[in-house]
Amino acid sequence: MAVRKDVAFVHDVIRSEGIARRYMIVNGFDGALTVLALCVGFLINRQTDLDLVLSAGISASVALAVSGVNSAWLSESAERKRQLMELESAMLRDLKGSRHERIRVWLVLSIALSNGITPLLLGLLILMPIGLQRWGLIHFDEPMRASVLIGLSLLFFLGALTGRISGEQWLLSGLRALLVAGITAILIFALTF
């Protein structure tokens, strides 16, 4: 019962239910585009060493996850602490150990985790065909191309999701996300040749 009150308190008082979703989409887009760009770069340069591709992709995904957790923790913690101090000042009392403080910690933690987990999961999804091929679990004729297709699909999905949330045409938003991927591929091609 206390947990339900705390969740309701977050929605009603702090009104920040969309923050975690925004962080997930923003950092998810960063993670998917980064790993997709790695795959495209390796494909353009005809790199066939799947161990190298997998290592680079996992490393980038882990780095984005750690960076996402840390950056969201630092920024949200500072914002929420400032809000709590303003509330303490307005109420003329210390709120240490109060429900307000517990909600602040819960909210910061959930936002930080959502900001970090999303790029890791999306990066690993993109790398899945390469990993399955490398470990001999499934044979793909073109594991790199399969990874690129998964990456493009995830970017389209994230773009469509933002369109749906904003009330825009989801198809147009998805296509805009693919346009960003296309521009990224062109830049990679131009800079590596």
Report on this structure:
It is a single chain. The chain has helices at residues 2-14, 17-44, 50-91, 99-134, 143-166, 170-192. It has 193 residues and is an all-alpha fold. It has one domain. Helix 1 packs across helix 4, helix 2 runs parallel beside helix 4 (99-134) and helix 2 (17-44) runs antiparallel to helix 5. The model has no long low-confidence stretch (mean pLDDT 85).
Feature tags:
6 helices, mainly alpha, elongated, 193 residues, single chain
- Give the ordered list of helices and strands: HHHHHH
Mean pLDDT: 85
- Kindly provide the radius of gyration, computed on alpha-carbon positions and rounded to a whole number of angstroms: 20 Å
Number of helices: 6
What count of domains describes the coordinates? 1
Content of β-strand: under 5%
| Helix percentage range | over 70%
Unreliable runs:
none
Structural class: mainly alpha
Largest sheet: none
Beta strands, count: 0
Judging from the principal axes of the Cα atoms, what is the shape?
elongated
Through-space gap between termini: 61 Å
